[in-house]
Q: What sequence folds into this?
């Protein structure tokens, strides 16, 4: 089965296969998507069950994130042979107003990405994105990790979730989001300017947030690598709130 849901003495664990990661890395992968426990014994029991499930499906790489303050869960992961690989931050913004002033002439435009954009957008994602759980894992071949990011933007285009950013007739980057219109909220998935247009990173984000405001989106969230100080500073200037830290662990099975 592609998904797993476990309970034991009040503790819970959920996991899933991640074939989109396997496509780039070349071996079966899975992710722990939820993990809560109130005792080390129950946490260890669930991790052992999750490993048994993963091994039965031929998984070689098992990854999961837990709250950075969840010392019990972090201890259980370390005791179970998992290794720390990265820290991520959850960030959010309520209201799309009060954006930093940007000269209107610098603001790029966003249009829905189409199939003919894929090659160029893949190149930007491959060459100009240096952060993420695979890119920061020293045990992962950097070429495979970069391919994973390129695959991601292609999947987002094919899923109708990506926009191509243009300025003066040139493609300068992209923005991807998942909008929940009924709830007036959005999940920001992947945004960035190509390296030659790095100075347009702030204008790109302002355009993206103005676009959300025009659709009555009142709250947005995203996840950012704590190692990506450039984007953290950008989010701070854009008025995002930093909510929680998540520590990422992985184990080769």
A:
């Amino acid at each position: 089965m592609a998904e797993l849901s476990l309970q034991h003495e009040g503790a819970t664990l959920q996991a899933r296969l991640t074939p989109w990661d396997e496509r780039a890395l070349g071996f079966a992968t899975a992710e722990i998507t939820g993990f809560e426990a109130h005792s080390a014994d129950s946490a260890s029991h669930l991790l052992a069950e999750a490993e048994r499930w993963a091994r039965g499906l031929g998984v070689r790489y098992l990854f999961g994130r837990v709250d950075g303050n969840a010392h019990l869960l972090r201890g259980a992961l370390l005791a179970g042979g998992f290794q720390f690989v990265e820290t991520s931050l959850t960030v959010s913004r309520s209201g799309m107003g009060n954006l930093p002033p940007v000269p209107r002439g610098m603001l790029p435009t966003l249009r829905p990405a189409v199939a003919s954009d894929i090659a160029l957008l893949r190149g930007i994602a491959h060459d100009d994105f240096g952060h993420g759980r695979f890119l920061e894992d020293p045990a992962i071949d950097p070429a495979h990790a970069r391919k994973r990011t390129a695959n991601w933007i292609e999947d987002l285009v094919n899923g109708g979730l990506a926009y191509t950013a243009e300025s003066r007739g040139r493609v300068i980057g992209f923005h991807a989001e998942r909008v929940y219109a009924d709830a007036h909220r959005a999940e920001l998935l992947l945004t960035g300017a190509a390296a030659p247009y790095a100075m347009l990173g702030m204008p790109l984000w302002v355009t993206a947030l103005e676009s959300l405001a025009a659709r009555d989106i009142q709250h947005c969230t995203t996840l950012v690598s704590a190692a990506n100080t450039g984007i953290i500073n950008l989010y701070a200037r854009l008025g995002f709130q930093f909510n929680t830290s998540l520590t990422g662990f992985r184990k080769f099975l």
User: Anything to note?
Assistant: The two ends are 18 Å apart (CA to CA). DSSP finds seven helices and eleven strands in the chain. The domain at 93-246 is CATH 3.40.630.30 (Aminopeptidase). The chain has two domains: 3-81, 93-246.
